[in-house]
Amino acid sequence: MFVINHRDIVRRGLRAVLEDADDLVVVGESAGVESCVPEVERAEPDVAIIDGTGAPTEAVEAVRTLRDERDDVQLVILGHADVERTRRTAIDAGADGYLLDDAVAGDVHDAVRHAARGDRMPGTPAGAGGAVADQNEIVPDLTLRERQVLSLIAAGMTNRQIGERLGLAEKTVKNYTSAVLAKLHVQRRTQAAIYSMTHAENPAPRSRN
Length: 209
Hints:
- The protein is α/β, with parallel strands linked by helices.
- It is 50% helix and 10% strand.
- A 5-stranded parallel β-sheet has the order 2-1-3-4-5, with helices on both faces.
- Strand 1, helix 1 (8-18) and strand 2 (28-30) form a beta-alpha-beta unit.
């Protein structure tokens, strides 16, 4: 594992989280892509995590640079909490996966493991990159309404906005949201949104007349 990020505190944090897992080892880190190429060649990591919090073009260029030098390294983009923007940046860059900077340790471990296995990232054509989640995972038994709520969470809507879209009280939406998080075994809406992106949930319904 190789960590590339201009923020020292982020590199240190990722290293600590990654090395907390018995099967993951950080073999190097760098503040920039250009300076890390010789180090990546020496370290020969299976996966590299690239800072994607800047302009999308920077992430694309970073992936391109590393691909030119080491096309056998799986590349994961680390972005802000905007799920769709981070996912789109990763896809456009041709990365093998993505992470959000508010991800919990388990999400970081899973994303790296899936990338290392070469799992395909949802939304990318076959043969172009890996996935954040295993497509063979058991899908929890969500009701139609829970799936609708999950889809709208992934769209970035608040409970109030979801209620307005579905014609439900905000408190009712909150209850549905809690049920969805429990069934997905996650604690945050961001994690639920990632699940929705990964499993291509049914599109959200239109508002009622």
